[in-house]
Write a structure and sequence with these properties.
The complex is a heterodimer of chains A (about 250) and B (about 425). Chain A has 9 helices and 12 strands. Chain A is an alpha/beta fold and about 250 residues long. Chain A has one domain: P-loop containing nucleotide triphosphate hydrolases (Rossmann fold, 3-Layer(aba) Sandwich), CATH 3.40.50.300. In chain A, the strands form 3 sheets. In chain A, strands 6-7-8-3-9-10 form a 6-stranded mixed β-sheet, with helices on both faces. In chain A, strands 2-1-4-5 form a 4-stranded antiparallel β-sheet, with helices on one face. Classes of the chains: A alpha/beta (about 250), B mainly alpha (about 425). Chains A and B meet through α2 and α3 of A and α1 and α10 of B. Chain B: It is a multi-pass membrane protein.
Chain lengths: ~250, ~425
């Protein structure tokens, strides 16, 4: 079995403290999976994603992305990663197209191919009419859609999404999930961090609930929902396994 | 290379979208250089014929004090004020006007001033003649004046600059000693019944101002030639502000996370900013040059003469811009907020300008400050510009300044890249 991500005994403490943001965490994500990375605020989700995308160095442990160890191959790995941060990672003064041209070109995508992908992506997101409008004139939902597009123009093998649907209307949420589903069907592995448990339950093929920098529950979504002989909701499982319930 | 090109396009688009900021970047230096040159030219040449009013209370009734006043007013572009509200000015009123700041200078000439000068010169001449020709029948004996030393009082408003005070005092001293000398010659003339007017009317030595570098062209440097290098440098270094704010803003936007996750080195992204802001600096520079050459004469100011110096000036502007950009990148990299970058950037530019000799000549500074000036990039730039514009220097003489500016740029960028990598990257 080949894995897209292999995390081996990863640890990270905050500077000058004993507090472990990530504590001896190990995890494997298969290719073409949609992993839901769930946990309360401060559980360590964003820190874990930062280490997986090369933005933070672990104190201990190793990470392999598509078989490449991160600390030695970060630039190679970044070429096959797509990152969609929770914040709108776009230039507000530039138009949607200008933003996408810039970020796509930074991944070295050929100009003609990039143009085609931008046009297709904008159309799929239902924003063709707004492609030449400045980002600061967009609604939250429209910004989220462009934010997602900017992270996938280079057709990455693996995408990290941090709360991709937070604060958006139902319509935008539907468009985003549809788009992500199509990417996954085309072979892209997705790591998705969210507080929206209903969305995660329906969208993720696998979930990992993280708290205090450790994995509390991990497995195929359909398997972990069956507990003590009955089908529970992901929300119930979440509450049972995170600090608020303990 | 294409990544740098695409990042340049993005930076240019960002600049273009901020029309007001764009206008400020290019227009403010032009406004600055016009304003400063206009004021300096007016002050130096008194082209507006502005006369500084000077209050005079003359308690003397003799001829000499009148001569001093007339000469002072004629030669120093002063306006004589001897009355206040239709009445003759008194010493007390004059002092009150100075104290309240309504007037700036008051000169009080003591009573019996002319007589005193005459008595003193007569006495000294007779003493001298008595020594040279001891026979008392050949020279009249004069009694030494018994009156005390006469004091001409000059009152200044505390707000008046020291240089003006010094000018007025020197003018007064010069005129009094001229008149004393004239009185001496007059006494000699009377004693010997001879014509000694050639001594006072003919100048034995003359002075001529020669600017060494422009000797062939027989030209004197104008305020424009002095101003352009200083204020151009000042404007170029102010690029630190928009550049550092641009970097800080990018760091504080969500875009920073995505930029860090890109398979692009921070040096690539930095290079695009360096090229774009270098372009901005050079456009600023050429705008100021064009204004100084073509607009100044229209405004009644002397035009800048750049004949044969354009390449030298361009090279100096290019290297000065690099130094400024390097410093801007460094500030932008270290600053965490806009509030840190903007005041620090602006204040440090002003400090660098002051110690670099942009406002006060370095040679007139105390020795410690002269040493400090030598490590100011603005001083390297200024000396380089002066070498090109005023001293007709060749490229070899520019090499030390160009090297220093380039090294300053490289050091700043290196520190910024190392810091960036250490703080932000895996």
């Amino acid at each position: 079995m080949s894995y897209s991500i292999e995390i081996d005994q990863l640890s990270l403490s905050y500077k000058n403290t004993d507090f472990k943001a990530i504590n001896n965490l190990s995890l494997k994500v298969k290719r073409n999976e949609v992993l839901g990375l769930l946990g309360p605020n401060g559980a360590g989700k964003t820190t874990l994603i930062s280490m997986l995308t090369g933005l933070q160095r672990p104190d201990k442990g190793k990470i392999f992305i598509e078989g490449l160890e991160t600390s030695a191959n970060i630039h190679e790995i970044q070429k096959i990663l797509g990152v969609v941060p929770q914040e709108y990672a776009l230039y507000p003064k530039l138009t949607a197209k200008e933003n996408l041209q810039f970020f796509g070109s930074m991944y070295g995508v050929d100009r003609k191919i990039l143009k085609k992908r931008i046009d297709e992506g904008i159309e799929k997101m239902g924003l063709s009419k707004f492609s030449n409008k400045r980002i600061d004139t967009f609604s939250g939902g429209m910004k989220r859609r462009i934010n997602l597009l900017a992270g996938v123009l280079h057709e990455p093998k693996l995408i990290f999404l941090d709360e991709p649907t937070v604060g958006v209307d139902v319509q935008s949420k539907h468009v985003i999930i549809e788009f992500l589903t199509s990417l996954n069907q085309a072979g892209t592995t997705i790591v998705y961090s969210s507080h929206l448990l209903h969305e995660a339950q329906s969208f993720c093929s696998r979930v990992a609930i993280i708290d205090h920098g450790e994995i509390q529950v991990e497995g195929a979504t359909k398997d972990i929902l069956v507990s003590e002989g009955r089908v529970k909701s992901l929300e119930e499982i979440f509450i049972e396994n995170t600090s608020n319930s303990k | 290379m294409s990544k740098v090109f695409n990042a340049i396009i993005k930076e240019l688009r960002l600049l273009r979208k901020d029309l007001l900021g764009f206008a400020i970047i290019f227009l403010m230096p032009v406004v600055l250089i016009i304003t400063i040159t206009f004021i300096q030219n007016s002050v130096e040449n008194n082209s507006n014929n502005v006369k500084l009013p000077i209050l005079i209370v003359n308690n003397d009734e003799g001829e000499l004090s009148k001569k001093i006043i007339n000469k002072l007013v004629d030669e120093n572009n002063l306006k004589l004020v001897t009355e206040y509200k239709g009445k003759a000015l008194t010493e007390d009123t004059g002092r009150n006007l100075i104290k309240s700041g309504v007037q700036k200078i008051l000169i009080v000439i003591p009573s019996d001033f002319s007589n005193y000068i005459h008595q003193q010169t007569d006495y000294h001449v007779s003493q001298l003649l008595a020594e040279v020709m001891p026979n008392p029948s050949q020279s009249s004996q004069v009694e030494k004046s018994t009156s005390s030393l006469k004091e001409v009082q000059i009152h200044f408003d505390p707000a008046i600059s020291n240089s003006i005070k010094l000018d007025i005092k020197r003018a007064m001293e010069g005129m009094v000693s001229d008149l004393e000398a004239k009185a001496l010659y007059d006494t000699f003339e009377e004693e010997f019944e001879a014509d000694l007017s050639f001594l006072t009317e003919q100048q034995l030595i003359s002075f001529k101002e020669i600017s060494v570098s422009i000797l062939d062209k027989n030209l004197t440097p104008t305020p424009v030639q002095h101003n352009l290098p200083a204020w151009t440098l000042f404007a170029i270094f102010f690029i630190i502000l928009p550049l550092s704010i641009n970097i800080v803003k990018e760091k504080n936007q969500g875009t920073f996370i995505r930029l860090q996750a890109l398979p692009v080195s921070s040096l690539t992204l930095m290079t695009s900013k360096i090229i774009v802001y270098l372009l901005v600096c050079m456009v600023q520079f050429y705008l100021m040059l064009l204004v100084s050459i073509f607009l100044f004469p229209v405004l009644g100011l002397p035009a800048l003469i750049v004949e044969g110096k354009l390449i030298g000036l361009t090279v100096m502007a290019l290297f000065s811009s690099l130094a400024a950009i390097g410093y801007g990148v460094l500030i932008g990299t270290f600053a965490k907020t806009h509030e840190q970058a903007a005041p620090f950037g602006a204040t440090s530019v002003v400090i660098l300008a002051a110690i670099g000799g942009l406002w006060f000549p370095v040679f007139a500074m105390p020795e410690t400050m002269r040493m400090i000036a030598k490590v100011s990039p603005m001083n390297w730039g200024l000396e380089g510009f002066y070498n090109v514009l005023l001293r007709d220097a060749n490229f070899i003489s520019l090499a030390p300044y160009l090297s220093l500016l380039l090294v300053f740029f490289i050091i700043n960028i290196t520190i910024a890249v190392i810091y960036e990598k250490k703080i932000n990257q895996l």
